[in-house]
Amino acid sequence: MEPYEYSPLPDTHSIRMLTLLPGTGDQPLAGTLLNFDTNSLPHESYEPLSYVWGNPERVHDFICDGNKSLKLTRSLYHALRRLRLPDKERRIWADQICINQADMAERGEQVQFMNSIYKFANHVLVWLGEDDGTEAKAAFGLVESLAGTFDDPERYEKFEVDHTGENLDERSKEDWAPMKHLTDLPWFERAWIVQEIGTVSPATLFWGSSSMDWHVLYSVCERLTRFHHLRRRFDVDTAKVKFVFQRFVPPDRSTRHANRLSFIYELHRARHVKATDPRDRVFAFLGHYSVIEGENPELKNLVPDYQEETGTIPRVYADAAARALTGGGTEGGLIALAAVQHLTLPLTEEEWGNLREMQGQEYMPSWVPDWRTYTSHILSEPTSPHRASGVLSSQIPSLNSQGAVLQIKGVCLDVVASVSEPLKPKAFHYHLQRKQGEVEPQVVSLWKDVCGQAQVDGGVLFDLNRPYAGGGSAVLAYMQTLSNGGAATALRRRDRERRSSSGDNGDLSWHYGIPDQEWLGQAAAYLISATGEKEKPQKVHQDLWEIGTRAMAVQADAQANGHPDASGRPGLPRRTSNGEESPDEEWSRSANGATTNRVFARTERGFYVLGPKVLAEGDVVCVLWGGKLAFCLRPLETSGKFLLVGECYVHGFMNGQAAELAQRGELVEQEFELV
Question: What is the b/e burial string over 211-222, where b = at least 16 CB atoms within 10 angstroms of the residue's CB?
Fold first, then answer.
């Protein structure tokens, strides 16, 4: 059979649409391709297909336009056989057929229409893959059963009892295996599905011969959110499902979901997805509302480029970062720099020079995020209450004429003197540490080894009277640094208070109005629990011990009276599936979230720093104008330039203090050149 040859599209606003012909059984798969004006999409009836390409080898025949052969991958071939109707045509859009994949220019042009194609669809078809005949039925059956349980108060109450506490240990892993298999399917991690399934269009999931409504799966995963221990025990990754649900629908701007208004933040959140072409990690989000409705004009002009010479991975990633940094708007706070997460970084100028020479055209400046890597979440998230730049937060960096050197002003705070090893996930989960037989809790070892604090007065280690270089108590500075200043805790509190009132709490400045005593209560409670000194203080000074025990008593009293805290309003502790979380658990949660794959450090003057895993002694800690947090830089002595190490929290400098010191002449402003 003669191979099918694509004809060029007639104009810049046309796409191709597939009419899938009816058929059953072993009848050949056939259809026709027609040009389609994208301006008419809102008024047409069609069903776009979302699927995983899988093995890229195209070995299956599709009869196109009557008598020509178009080769398909195994995945698409079986998807179309499953979705074709027995007695009537079906209008479908599928990228592998409707875009000439061999034409790089066309690919780049057609990508811009994908969001509209899925947004205006009357129905989205999702192909999860082939099935052996039992797995899909069991998985979808379990989801449907859970949906019924969650909608029935009596069944839900029994489910909650059976799946929390000690009762959870009696539940069989085999019962939840189908759900695990479902959430482990490759489709949930594919880059392009974020916009394909992330609109308001209704969708149906097809897995082999089974099918299920997409919203049913999402609603069940949403209800399972509060059953953290259940999901961990049975390894059910509901987060992947929740992440893609309506990701391309603008969120409530007054909650933490407002983070999604940032294009760079969305690229960061999608770092876990998989893309055959790494450039699609950027291009798959160009139809996102953060670009289309955002306030950054530079990003609006970013277009897909798959050309071999001009569209290399480093160029695509650098272009996106440069536009975010220089265009301002919703990409403020230097979030593009905060998204830089190096796995390794040269220690010397000689090593850096060798790396540039070896990588050649593949070299990426240190200030450009590599979206293929991930170490931890961004501390400088758009809704973060931190404002390290203070009154100078609106300044925007610039690029040199070649576009490879980022020029940005700021001040140097100090030089790193001591650095911990990278902190592992759950480093401050003291229950887990005890089970693993660790002799000394992480919170104790860092205090002694990095901060250089020693036991005195009969064994006292944590004493409120020990001063911090930036002012105040060293203990509070230490515990706040490890928890990113309690930012995540405060944001959860803000969202709770907003839900309990009709007001819009969009102003983030209130975070610094929370009394130190509240933060200290959480920190002290954790120190008491981690050191095992709930009955009698030894390592924890008596004054600090009393603050911690009082915080735990207040929480216990609040639980007994049915209030989040003693005042009857939502306080710092949060509600979980096991009831109110105690202050020590709340601090542990924030610290584990902030420190994973980061290091704790101390500077020469004694400032405490939470920084990227590649931070090293001799790196400088700076506040760069425009940034929400501080940044660590690595000096290149001969050239006078710097490598960007990454964002960092420096206690005492997160609320505009550096800008004030610079204005008074106590810190000297300088221009940093990042390469």
Answer: bbbbeebbbbbe
Q: What is the pLDDT of residue 567?
A: 34
Contact of 588 with 623, CB cutoff 8 Å: no
Q: Is 133 helix (H, G, I), strand (E, B) or coil?
A: coil
Q: Tens digits of per-residue pLDDT, 349-375?
A: 999 999 999 999 899 999 999 999 999
Supply the Cα-derived Rg of the chain in whole angstroms: 28
Per the confidence metrics, is the pTM higher than 0.85? yes
β-strands 406-419, 598-603 pairing: antiparallel
Q: Are strands 598-603 and 608-612 parallel, antiparallel or unpaired?
A: antiparallel
Percent of the chain scoring above 70 in pLDDT: 92
- Per-residue burial over 448-466, b if 16 or more Cβ lie within 10 Å, else e, is eebbebeeeeeebbbbbeb
Q: What is the pLDDT of residues 396-417, one digit of tens each?
A: 999 987 879 999 999 999 999 9
Position of tokens 């959110």?
225
Q: What residue spans of 483-531 are helical by DSSP H?
A: 487-499, 516-531
Paired with 33 in beta bridges are 18
Contact between 342 and 598 under an 8 Å Cβ cutoff? The reply is no
Rounded Cα distance between 524 and 515, Å, is 14
Q: Identify the DSSP state of 467.
A: B
